[in-house]
């Protein structure tokens, strides 16, 4: 009997001896289950050692305006004051793009992503809507910002210190300037650029240019043996100016538009070249480009759909960062409209009756890989010889637009 009790006691002890092992196995099993439940809820790279937060999608771009703010009212004293445009961006640091600014659905400025601030000059008391677009190198919009409404109110509605056209005998003033000016009469007839009191909107529309003088007497100058007739390549040029900018418009008739290049190679395709000699009299006998000369090229856009471009061939050999350019291409040619800030040409100290050397040239490529023909506003032209330049005369005859509207 005693041995049987000992046997039962021994069996019970054996079960109790195994209980800690069973407990450990249960704990390990529950732990494994819990581990797999948790890991399924964690990011895929949690155990890879990469704890960096996943960035937003690459197309999650944004632009927003610090100025103007929504429904902001700008009260300006006169037309010399400007509206500050300040833009902030999101996720475009590594993006190859430009920023286009539209006011009332018209392009007014193209900015590089590193510099999204500028001053805009309104021309009238009115309400406006502004927005911005991110544009890739091919001219494709990637993002459009929210539209912001704002208003401008001029306390003095009329421009200050303005003469009127009625006060000026334009032809007499031209003759007086020519009688005093020292310029190269043999190179070309002078072109007159009028001061504008309401700047043209840079939108490739000819309407703003109807009141200004037009130049059409282009001559074949480089590779002129390839010239056929005016339908091959010809142009209509107009310009005007104010204290801040030089504005121009060129309408080129071209039977074959071909611009396969961009950047510093645009002068190998269909393009235009503006050459200025700021100190004409001092350089009268100097044929080479020097520190007061500027050679600026403009393209209507390349064959791949890229937007209009500009490039300063001389003196900086770099892009023209602060120009505003608009262009249109069609079956019969193209138009380029632009504004160049005077601070991009610091030697151009422009005021009424200023006379400078100047030539505008049209570069025609047709189906070749380089320029086939050059048409110029001067009778002869060489890219590196400023002694062949014609003449541009800046003249202030009052507010032409205002007086044209008054007489209609």
Number of domains: 2
| Largest sheet features | 13 strands, mixed
Query: How many β-strands, per DSSP?
Result: 22
Shape: globular
Percent in helix: 10-25%
Q: Helices and strands: which structural class?
A: alpha+beta
- What would the CATH topology of the largest domain be? Immunoglobulin-like
For the termini, the CA-CA separation is 137 Å
Number of helices: 3
The proportion of strand residues reads 35-45%
Average residue-wise pLDDT: 84
The top level CATH class name of the largest domain: Mainly Beta
Task: Tell me about this structure.
The structure is a single chain. The strands form three sheets. Strands 10, 11, 12, 13, 14, 15, 16, 17, 18, 19, 20, 21 and 22 form a 13-stranded mixed sheet that branches. The protein has helices at residues 2-41, 170-180, 400-407; strands at 62-67, 72-76, 83-90, 98-103, 106-112, 117-120, 126-135, 141-144, 148-154, 191-195, 219-222, 233-241, 245-254, 271-277, 293-299, 309-314, 318-319, 324-330, 333-341, 355-364, 373-376, 390-395. The radius of gyration is 34 Å and the shape is globular. It is built from three helices and 22 strands. The protein has 408 residues and is α+β, with helices and mostly antiparallel strands. It folds into two domains: 62-154, Sandwich (Immunoglobulin-like); 165-407, Immunoglobulin-like (Sandwich), CATH 2.60.40.1190.
């Amino acid at each position: 009997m005693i041995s049987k009790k000992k046997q039962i006691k021994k069996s019970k002890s054996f079960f109790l001896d195994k209980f800690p092992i069973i407990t450990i196995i249960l704990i390990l099993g529950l732990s494994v289950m819990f581990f797999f439940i948790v890991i399924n809820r964690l990011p895929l790279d949690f155990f890879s050692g990469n704890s960096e937060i996943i960035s937003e999608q690459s197309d999650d771009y944004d632009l927003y305006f610090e100025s103007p703010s929504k429904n902001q009212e700008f009260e300006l004293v006169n037309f010399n004051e400007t509206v500050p445009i300040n833009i902030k961006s999101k996720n475009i640091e590594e993006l190859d793009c430009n920023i286009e600014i539209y006011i009332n659905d018209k392009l007014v400025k193209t900015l590089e992503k590193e510099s999204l601030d500028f001053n805009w000059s309104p021309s009238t008391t009115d309400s406006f809507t502004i927005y911005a677009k991110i544009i890739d190198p091919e001219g494709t919009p990637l993002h459009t910002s929210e539209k912001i409404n704002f208003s401008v109110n001029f306390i003095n509605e009329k421009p200050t210190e303005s003469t009127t056209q009625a006060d000026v005998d334009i032809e007499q003033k031209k003759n007086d300037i020519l009688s005093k000016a020292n310029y190269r009469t043999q190179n070309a007839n002078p072109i007159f650029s009028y001061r504008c009191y309401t700047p043209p909107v840079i939108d490739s529309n000819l309407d703003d240019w109807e009141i200004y003088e037009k130049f059409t007497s282009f001559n074949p100058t480089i590779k002129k043996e390839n010239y056929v007739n005016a339908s091959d390549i010809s142009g209509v040029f107009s310009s005007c100016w104010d204290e801040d900018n030089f504005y121009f418009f060129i309408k080129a008739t071209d039977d074959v538009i071909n611009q396969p290049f961009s950047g510093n190679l645009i002068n190998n395709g269909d393009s235009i070249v503006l050459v200025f000699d700021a100190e004409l009299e001092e350089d009268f006998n100097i044929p080479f480009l020097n520190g007061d000369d500027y050679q600026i090229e403009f393209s209507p856009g390349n064959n791949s759909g890229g937007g209009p471009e500009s490039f300063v061939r001389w003196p900086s050999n770099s892009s023209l960062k602060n120009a505003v350019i608009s262009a249109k291409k069609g079956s019969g040619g193209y138009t380029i409209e632009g504004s160049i800030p005077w601070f991009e040409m610091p030697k151009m100290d422009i005021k009424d009756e200023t006379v400078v050397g100047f030539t505008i040239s049209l570069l025609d490529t047709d189906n070749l890989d380089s320029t086939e023909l050059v048409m110029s506003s001067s009778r002869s032209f060489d890219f590196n010889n400023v002694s062949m330049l014609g003449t541009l005369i800046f003249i202030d005859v009052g507010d032409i637009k205002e007086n044209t509207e008054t007489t209609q």
